[in-house]
Specification:
The structure holds 2 protein chains of 2 kinds.
Chain A lengths: L5 H6 L7 E6 L10 E7 L2 E8 L7 H6 L3 H9 L6 H16 L5 H29 L3 H22 L9 E2 L2 E2 L7 H23 L2 H6 L7 H6 L4 H5 L7 H4 L20 H25 L19 E9 L2 E9 L7 E5 L2 H13 L7 H7 L4 H5 L1
Helix pairs in contact in A: 3-4, 4-5, 5-6, 5-12, 5-14, 6-7, 7-12
Chain B lengths: L9 H11 L2 E6 L5 E5 L4 H10 L4 E10 L4 E10 L4 E10 L4 E3 L2 H4 L1 H14 L2 E3 L24 H9 L5 H8 L8
Parallel strand pairs in B: 2-5, 6-7
Antiparallel strand pairs in B: 1-2, 3-4, 4-5
């Protein structure tokens, strides 16, 4: 048995100033509703143990008691930072079970909103990473620009953060209001201006704290279940939008940014380039938007989901999101398993990266994973 | 983009599996995913075979509760980055003796975390997984809460209902708590 350290040592009445426990979160400004217990010796982390559960709301069980349109609203809350992407995964699962043919215009709107949500989520990541690195200007600039996207969300869905199940089974809750397209074109120009601002800061501030920090090799990334920008930052060009296209992604032209280094800086570069790609995707989708108008989707009384099972995967800002939905022909799903990228990123990947790291690098490692406690705890 | 016309060897994969294992109701779904049901005794061998065939990502593990049949159904969702194919492997286990071998030897820590979650929420034991500590619930002594026979509404009413709180009364009894406090 190894010698007791930290709280164990204290319990035995020894003052052990070399090995002690340090909590990062849940009350840390950068941690979100999540903590990780670090056993440290001096500045070096010997062990890291994630402490999830602060945001567990039991969504999988709640959904068993509700109809698909009610669940569409619940699916907003799966991740506060990218609710529209989660709307889409849930809606596709129900559509597949019901065999619904979604109108082309609704598919294009889904892609536009999902990509804007991805951009918005990546902006939050940039802001919070900047804040965690002590670079407050970056935080304020990023959150300022995020509001432009939220203005559009409010205009289209009525909600800034929670779209109330805007991307719902059957299509979208209602068509774009008049003038939306013009506003999106303007928004994309604003986003490009933002990217130029980010680039001007990055060369010094972010690189200095992120280069060579939190290196995740490709073998480890696969073994630990990393997906999304974390996996792409370790060198594998995997993206559900291209590998198993949904909606209209097979008709769109976009690249999958990757980096070989696997460090926090590589993951940062991947995400910034993904904002560029998302801007490209939204432009192409706007050009493809059919002219007809969509009727609003209304709840069906006594509607049933046909018996069956599906496993639907999407690429959301943080990685692979999936829903396993099982129906036995009732009004709600019999079982709805939600697979978020963060259960893997916040427990096995984070614990692996923190072990052996320096205490001062914790915020950089933590936020380079762009983690969201909400979709981990569900 | 060129993938849409290509079945990615899914039918061939299904044939190869069927020639080695006794499978129930194998099918290739319209979204090009493959679904296979096997007996619990074949579970590890089938997954090892799939791993050799290039399935390198354990996307998720899930449990579905069938209390009327006294069974749990465990589903493994496996993805291959190379073949761009999803295989779901399903197996049924006894609900009262809910144990199954851990998939850690095949999929490593990514399977470990899903198993840890399922142990907490459904009470399934994964033999060989040494870390099944609770993830989400603190000081919980009740039954695994995601089982179908756990009625959370009843539980909340029994443990948290406060008759003196007008909001609680309005929620549980439908009576308007306003003015009566």
């Amino acid at each position: 048995m190894t010698e007791a350290t930290g709280t164990e040592a204290m319990a035995q009445g020894r003052r052990d100033m070399n090995g002690y426990d340090l909590y990062f979160g849940p009350a840390h400004p950068g941690s979100g509703n999540f903590g990780v217990k670090l056993t440290v010796e001096g500045e070096r982390i010997l062990r890291a143990r994630s402490d999830p559960g602060y945001l567990h709301r039991g969504f999988e069980k709640l959904m068993e008691y509700r109809t698909p349109l009610q669940n569409a609203v619940l699916s907003d809350r799966l991740c506060i930072l990218e609710s529209l992407n989660w709307n889409l995964v849930h809606a596709e699962a129900v559509d597949q079970l019901c065999g619904t043919e979604v109108p082309e215009r609704a598919k294009v709107i889904r892609v536009i909103m999902a990509e804007l949500s991805r951009i918005q989520s990546h902006i939050i990541w940039y802001g919070v990473l900047a804040k965690a690195l002590g670079f407050d200007t970056g935080f304020k600039v990023a959150f300022g620009y995020r509001d432009y996207v939220l203005d559009l969300f409010e205009f289209v869905t009525g909600g800034r953060v929670y779209p109330a199940g805007y991307l719902c089974p059957g299509g979208v809750r209602r068509d774009f209001p008049a003038g939306t397209e013009k506003r999106i074109w303007e928004l994309l120009r604003t986003m490009e201006k933002m990217l130029r601002e980010f680039e001007a800061y990055d060369s010094k501030t972010i690189a200095a704290r992120c280069q060579g920090v939190g290196v995740l090799g490709l073998d480890d990334a696969l073994r630990l279940g990393a997906t999304g920008p974390v996996l792409r930052g370790s060198g594998l060009a995997a993206d559900v939008r291209r590998d198993a296209p949904y909606e209209i992604y097979d008709k769109l032209d976009f690249e999958i940014p990757t980096r070989e280094e696997g460090d926090a800086l590589a993951r940062s570069i991947v995400r910034q380039r993904e904002i560029e790609e998302s801007i490209k995707i939204v432009r192409q989708a706007l050009d493809r938007l059919p002219g007809e108008t969509l009727p609003p989707v209304k709840p069906k009384l006594a509607g049933k989901i046909p018996a069956g099972e599906v496993y639907v995967r999407n690429e959301i800002a943080r990685g692979e999101a999936a829903v396993y939905m099982r129906s036995v022909g009732e009004s709600g799903p019999y079982r709805c398993k939600i697979r978020g990228p963060d259960l893997l990123h916040m427990i096995p990947v984070l614990e692996h990266l923190l072990t052996g790291a320096e205490v001062a690098d914790v915020p950089a490692i933590y936020w380079s994973l762009n983690i969201c406690p909400a979709d981990m705890d569900r | 983009m060129a993938e849409s016309g290509n079945t990615g060897g899914r039918e061939e994969l299904l044939k190869a599996v069927a020639s080695r294992f006794t499978v129930e109701a194998p099918r290739v779904a319209p979204d090009r995913s493959v679904w296979i049901s096997v007996a619990k005794s074949d579970l590890a061998d089938l997954q090892a075979f799939l791993k050799r065939e290039g399935f390198d990502h354990c996307s998720a593990i899930s449990v579905t509760d069938w209390p009327d049949e006294d069974q749990f159904e465990i589903t493994y969702h496996l993805w291959s980055y190379g073949r761009r194919t999803l295989v779901t492997v399903k197996t049924r286990i006894d609900r009262t003796q809910a144990t199954v071998d851990s998939a850690i030897p095949l999929w490593g820590p990514s399977a470990a975390i899903h198993e840890r979650e399922l142990h907490e929420l459904f009470g399934v034991r994964f033999e060989g997984n040494t870390d099944l500590a609770p993830l989400f619930l603190e000081n919980w002594n009740g039954p695994p809460p995601f089982r179908k026979d756990f009625d959370w509404r009843k539980h909340v009413r029994e443990t948290h209902y406060d008759e003196g709180d007008p909001r609680d009364r309005s929620y549980w009894d439908g009576s308007d708590g306003a003015g009566s406090a």
